Amino acid sequence: MRLGLIGLGRIGAFHADTLSALDAVSSLVVTDAVPAAAAAIAARLPVEVSDSPEELLAAGVDGVVIAAATDAHPELLLAAAAAGLPVFCEKPVARTMDEGLRVARRVGDTGVPVQIGYPRRFDAGFAAARAAVAAGELGRLHTVRSTTLDPAPPPAAYVAVSGGIFRDCAVHDFDAVRWVTGREVVEVYATGSAIGDAVFAGSGDVATAATVLTLDDETVAVVSNTRYNPRGYDVRLELHGTADSIAVGLEPKLPLRSVEPGATFPDAEPHAFFMDRFAAAFRAELAAFTEVVAGTRPSPCTVEDAMETGWVAEAATRSLAEHRPVRLDDVRRPL
């Protein structure tokens, strides 16, 4: 099949490599607002370059991958859907939930399949955890702990427009909790600290956060996030039930140092960033999209899924600001 890729920044360039290596992809058309970025990709990969998204959409592609900046997501999603092209779009659907609702409603009216990028759904460990929960291996689930610790803060310009740590970082934990447990969040309580670069406090954001999620079966999930984990990129998930406890991410590259006498675990070079921790998951995610384009599977992460996770982030943001628990019913609006 012939695919288009819009946006060739850090993640877009990574996707270009992945898409070019997939057997299902016979040709790849790319474009970026910065022509030099497209030229750099074309210098090392067998791709075609379009001068604009409009030109790319008219280039006979079978589907489109959107890896452009968040502000461009709504316009590009709607344009691809209007052209009848299946779309993969990195999260979020839009910067604000109001705009996300508008996009979700209009995309829904087209009937075009859309897949939103949440790669933990394609990680072998997270998938195994989901299967264990679904099979009842843990008994009655009562506690979940989800962790995302970044090795260093993103650029100040990104922090200023990201929407905050809950919307751009913790959403991956929120989605993982929902997907692995098969439950929905009903209430959120969030707290945090802006210790670190002054850009966080200046943007009304925090650099370290903790969020308690109450699920619809009364399971309690605790989500931990920080922008400062100098040992590396730490993503883990623990699930505790009445019959068993399991964990994702307890492997040799875990960026954590044990101080137990004689302990050597973990004993490999720590994960440095999300693109090495989830390299296989990104490949599986885009391979799944080729199946969506081919019409052989439904979207594994729909706009509706992404919006529900977005409402959890919205509730966490409000909870932090108002220093109180927030129920999802108080923020969620129907599609």
Describe the protein in words.
- This protein is an alpha/beta fold and 335 residues long.
- The chain has two domains: 2-112, Rossmann fold, CATH 3.40.50.720; 121-277 and 309-330, 2-Layer Sandwich (Dihydrodipicolinate Reductase, domain 2).
- The chain has helices at 10-21, 35-44, 53-57, 73-82, 97-110, 124-134, 156-161, 165-181, 198-202, 274-277, 279-294, 303-322; strands at 2-6, 27-31, 48-49, 63-66, 87-90, 114-117, 141-149, 185-193, 208-215, 220-226, 234-241, 245-248, 326-327.
- The protein has a seven-stranded mixed β-sheet. Strands 3-2-1-4-5-6 form a six-stranded parallel β-sheet, sandwiched between helices.
- The longest helix has 20 residues, at 303-322.
- The chain is globular.
- It holds the Pfam family GFO_IDH_MocA.
- Belongs to the Gfo/Idh/MocA family.
- Keywords: Oxidoreductase.
- This is Gfo/Idh/MocA family oxidoreductase.
Give the topology, please.
Blueprint: E1 2-6, H1 10-21, E2 27-31, H2 35-44, E3 48-49, H3 53-57, E4 63-66, H4 73-82, E5 87-90, H5 97-110, E6 114-117, H6 124-134, E7 141-149, H7 156-161, H8 165-181, E8 185-193, H9 198-202, E9 208-215, E10 220-226, E11 234-241, E12 245-248, H10 274-277, H11 279-294, H12 303-322, E13 326-327
Parallel strand pairs: 1-2, 1-4, 2-3, 4-5, 5-6, 7-10
Antiparallel strand pairs: 7-11, 8-9, 8-13, 9-10, 11-12
Helix pairs in contact: 4-5, 5-12, 6-8, 8-12
